[in-house]
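Worked problem 6 (solution included).
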Amino acid sequence: MVEHEKLDNDDKSSVDLTVEDVQVKTKVKDDRGAWGNKIEYLLACIGLAVGLGNVWRFPYLCHKHGGGAFLIPYFICLVLEGVPLMYLEMAVGQFFRSGSVNCWSKIHPMLRGIGVGCVCVSILLCLYYVVIIARCIFYFISSFTVSLPFTVCSNVTGVLLNETCCERSNDKANYYWWNNVLQASGGFEDVDNFSWELLGCLAIAWVVVYICVFKGVESSGKAVYFTATFPYICLVILFFRAVTLPGAGDGILVYITPKFDKLLTGQVWLDAATQIFFSLSLGFGALVAFASYVPYKNYVGRDAVIVSLVNCGTSVFAGFVIYSILGYRQYKDIGTIEGVSSGSGLAFVAISEAVSEMPGGPIWAVLFFTMLVLLGLDSEFGTLEGAVTPIVVDMNLFPKIRKEIISAVLAVVLFVFGIGFCSGGGEYMIAVFDYYGMNIPILILALCETIAVGWVFGTENMSLAIEDMQGSRPSKFFTICWKYISPGLLIIIFCVTFVQNMIAAPTYNVYVGCNETDASLVQEVTLPATAQLLGWIIVVGALAPIPFFMVKNRDKDMVKFFTSCLQSVKEDRFYDMEELYYRPERVLAPRKDDEDV
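Solution. The predicted structure is:
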């Protein structure tokens, strides 16, 4: 466990504490495990941040919002939101040496709900994200053939589509995706079909995930040497192949040609901010958990900058690969670049369709889906660790059961619940989980984190803690971001997202097959009321721990609590620690009664 040297209250009660006095040295005796070295930690953080969204969402947003002009709001949001929040989460985890639950509890017991909320959201993400990995595995296995299956019409379910319809639609890859892989039903409430092949891939995905994380960072730290590096080898190989394809130049021009008039629309800035936020995996508690296993004396600021830049650089680089392939797809008259959407429609339909037309198509298909599988696995490792560490260490729910067994039980439970995503309505359920569970809850949790550090704990205390860990204080820029800029941006994003949800119900693509007059296969419709209700239940369930623990662990003197928060913001000088509500003996070494909350 973690032990801290406590200041002697008797010796310090009669004198004011200076900044130097509060630099309490921390002795760490941590039996929770640790990273083998700094490289493992950085690779794990990069693997967590760099996921499927870097490949199939960022390039689409860049093209949609003005090509190269989109990089302007993207990097502005990276500087004002991405790097500061990553710095904050890493610093909190490294300083308090705990998972997300205990870290925020040590700042104040009322904030325990932030950590519990992070655990809830991490479990929700693990539940359906591994299903997407299973689909990548499905395509990976299917690519080991001379003739790729998504280049021909073959019927599996025979429920909504037949070979004649496939030929009429002239979209074999889309047909294969909806009818063969998903075996999709006709709507959210229709779960008649079931894909046993996808269930088998889901089982494989969970077995691989568990093997890599069952010993926590000690096992996942070894796995990331391969899972975090090999995708880059695949990406580089695909890049040199893609840019040499006929039509690649046209695709790249569509990707990077700036349209500065697009910057005048608010949606561009909103999408840039949300892409930065979610692509860095902020608000899940995984970064906090990862940082808690690094040595106490570590330059956390450098780590945050490195991971952020690598993540964003990967997104930009992946865009050249994707749009080179899409340019080739257009060159072959398979489909236009403008008609491509983001997400699964890009990876499993448009790209697979283009790859099938390349010389040696199966080889490139195997390489592409290997990259997707590994990108997904890395993010799953980190998200699962963000849930397991608080359950095992912070909340200590099962003190007599080893972490390996708890991880196994959690994996089995999530696998069982994930079976529903293999039904005909699985794609529609993922749309609900992704839209509701990963938007508003994450924004609220991240906002609470910035308030906890910038206003409750105080940026001065955070600066002192960071100085003790890395030998230098964070720049004034970061403290201003933690107090004002980052929470301000999060409030704006949340308000816009919430208003959009209230004005118009979300839509999703439903598999309709084709008839005598329409062979479009899918149709965009509004989510049914039952799906919207389920979505809001997910939102409320994930955020409920925040108000619950604020009431349960409320401060005895709430007036003094709020006054101390305001004072920590108003003071424009080094704080005299005797004037702060949080004294160093509580900040750096929480009282026993706080630890038992």
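Discussion: The two ends are 17 Å apart (CA to CA).
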